[in-house]
Amino acid sequence: xxxxxxxxxxxxxxxxxxxxxxxxxxxxxxxxxxxxxxxxxxxxxxxxxxxxxxxxxxxxxxxxxxxxxxxxxxxxxxxxxxxxxxxxxxxxxxxxxxxxxxxxxxxxxxxxxxxxxxxxxxxxxxxxxxxxxxxxxxxxxxxxxxxxxxxxxxxxxxxxxxxxxxxxxxxxxxxxxxxxxxxxxxxxxxxxxxxxxxxxxxxxxxxxxxxxxxxxxxxxxxxxxxxxxxxxxxxxxxxxxxxxxxxxxxxxxxxxxxxxxxxxxxxxxxxxxxxxxxxxxxxxxxxxxxxxxxxxxxxxxxxxxxxxxxxxxxxxxxxxxxxxxxxxxxxxxxxxxxxxxxxxxxxxxxxxxx
Length: 354
Description:
The chain has helices at residues 16-27, 38-46, 88-96, 114-119, 161-172, 183-194, 196-203, 207-212, 214-233, 250-258, 265-272, 283-289, 301-311, 316-331, 340-353, and strands spanning 8-12, 31-35, 48-52, 55-59, 64-65, 77-81, 105-108, 125-131, 135-138, 141-143, 149-154, 176-179. By secondary structure, the chain is of the alpha/beta class.
């Protein structure tokens, strides 16, 4: 497969990630259509600017609908799911009502349950690790401050001609794309990293500020460590075997962050003064900031909490993050209600009472 064959990519859920991937594929010559919420459908029609490393790509399209039943599907179509995990069941049901079950579907999402949800209705399901940041606080502007990696594999653990062909198309669109039979292990590793989406939402920290702040680093490591302990006890791999290519090595990264004891006032000052267009905001932060009413913490922190419950292991960090984030969304608050030190103290107090 290649862009020249005019495969039609249908982006179902054209938020920050979906619109960025679809827009860059379209800019590279691919045929792309979008299924988007009305606000984002209008933004696609007016035009969206994608900013990445000093380069700006502007695209607009009328090839956008607001429901899956507004398109006709056929041979050559590839559907890319890019909505949040909490609405995946609804999206799969909507698509399955109008689409043949043999149409290839790609789960370009955080979390590790989307593929199994899709596999109940579709025969050709592809797992996709999206390891890049996309920030869309304004519907007509997406910033991509870091990362370009996308990994695709035939679910659950193989590769085929289609996964390799999709990677060729994504590489042509400027991504660092890899076909791998270890995609699900990488997605478990990213889940561990994404446990701190809640931490960044509660504290109001963007990623660069969190890395430079010593209290935040301690908290991030503690949250990851809890997740890694639970997954190890459950026998779940969080990365490919040594020697296999992977854009994420969460165990090594966590150890390096743990050993980073040097505090740098200069680095923190630089992070605090970083222009908003260059800041990396967690997707959960963006959802709360924009007033959305649901979040995906149940599919991130909730995975660790539930596995811990099954194994008889305490998970105070992820349980409290889940509780606080859910309350923030229910109350319609904004990011930044606790400092990292205060949040960590609350968790340790909970642990001391258990």
